[in-house]
Amino acid sequence: MHGSKLNQEATNTYIQSYSAKIVKEFFSQNDSISGQQIISITPVKQVNFFVLKALFDEWQEEIKKFKSPYFDYKNEDVNQALKAFINTLSKNIQISKEHFSPLLEKAVMATLELLYDPASYFTQELSKTTSADKSKELKSSSKYIKIHKPLFDDLFKKLERGDDLNHAIQGALTSYTSSNQELEQTVELFNLTLPLDVVDKKADAEELPMPEPLDELEEMETISPEESASQEDINEEFKPVEEDLEDETHNVNQQYKEDIKTLNQRYEEKEKAKTVATALESKSLSTLKNNININQRYMFVNDLFEGNDKDYEVAMNEVENCDSFDSSVELLVQNYAKKYTWDMNSDEVKELLKVIFKRFR
C-alpha cells in the first residue's frame, strides 16, 4: 500500500459512473436527501460517512464566517444561542440532487484512496491544516474512518507523541498489516452497485488480491441495528466549534418450481468454492426483517409492493414463518407476485429471493 495504486483515469470514470447511478436511483423517488438517509445511501459504509465528513467540512467553513468587528460571538449567551441554532439545523439536513452529487463524488474518491493508498489519503488530509497539532486534527476525523482503523489508531498515537507527519505515516504503514478480507469485502460492496476495477495493472497481484465476481444472488451486507445511525449520531457529526390466485398463477408457479431447483443447484455448487462469496453465503440470517437493510427495504416496498408498507410487513412475517425456501417462494407467488405483477427475472425479485434464501441456510 505504499504509493498510488489507482489508475487515475479509470478512477475518475468510476467515481462519476458510480455516483451518477446512486444519485439517479435515489432521486428518482426523492426530491432531497436527509442526514438519516445519507447513512445508508450506498452499500459502502465508508462512502456514506465520508459524505457526512464532506458536509461537516463545508459546515466548518461556514462557521468561520461568524466573525464581526461589531458583535461579540465569543459572548456566552451568543455562543449558547449559536449552539442551539446548529443543533436544530443538524436535525433538518435537506440536500438537493444538484448539491448532493459533488459531495458523493468526493466521498467515493476519498474512500478509494483510503482503501488502496492510505499514505496519500492521510498526507493530503493532514496537510490541509496549518495547525501544528496534527493529532488533534486527526482525532476530529476518527468518527468518519471505517476502514483501516488499526492504521488510523497507530498513526494517531505517533502524532500524539510528537512525530512529524511524514515519519508518523511511514512508521505506521511499516508496522501495519493490512486485512485482505477487509479489502475484498469493501470491493464486493462496491461491486453490488458497479463493478470496481480501478487498480493500476502494474500493481502487485499478491499484494492487492481482487475477489472473484459475485454470483447474481450473492448476499448483500446488511446494516445491523447497532450500526444504524440515530439522529443523535448525526447531531454529533455537526457539533459547533466548541393479498384466490391459484388458476391465474399456475404458469408462474411452474416457472418458479424450475427456478427454485436451479437456484438451489447453483448455491450447492457455490458451497464448494473457497471464495469470499462462499464465506458470505455461509452466514445464516436469524430473522428476516432485521437483516434487510434500509436500501433493500426501500427497494422492496416501492418496486415490489408499490409502496404498500402493510403488505410488505405481512409478507415478510409470513415468509418468516415458512419452513423452507420453496414454501416461502410459493407463498410469495400465490399472494403477491400476480397481485403486483412482478417481473420474476427482475433484479428486485432476485434480491428478495437472495435474502430469503439465506434465511433458510
Task: Characterize the structure shown.
The chain is mainly α. It is 59% helix and 1% strand. It is built from 17 helices and two strands. It has helices spanning 8-27, 35-38, 45-63, 76-90, 97-116, 118-127, 134-139, 149-160, 165-175, 180-191, 231-237, 250-270, 276-281, 294-304, 309-320, 325-337, 347-359; strands at 32-33, 95-96. A two-stranded antiparallel ribbon has the order 1-2. Helix 1 (8-27) packs across helix 5, helix 5 packs across helix 6 (118-127) and helix 15 (309-320) packs antiparallel against helix 16 (325-337). The longest helix is centred in the last third of the chain and has 21 residues, at 250-270. It is globular. 25% of the residues are buried. Residues 202-228, 241-253 and 270-285 have low confidence and may be disordered.
Characterize this entry briefly.
The chain has 361 residues and is mainly alpha-helical. It contains 17 helices and two strands. 25% of the residues are buried.
Question: Top keywords for this entry?
Answer:
361 residues; mainly alpha; two-stranded antiparallel ribbon; 17 helices; 1% strand
What level of helicity do the residues show?
55-70%
Q: Low-confidence parts lasting 5 or more residues at pLDDT below 50?
A: 202-228, 241-253, 270-285
Q: How many beta-strand segments? A: 2
Question: Mean pLDDT across all residues, rounded?
Answer: 76
Morphology? globular
Strand content: under 5%
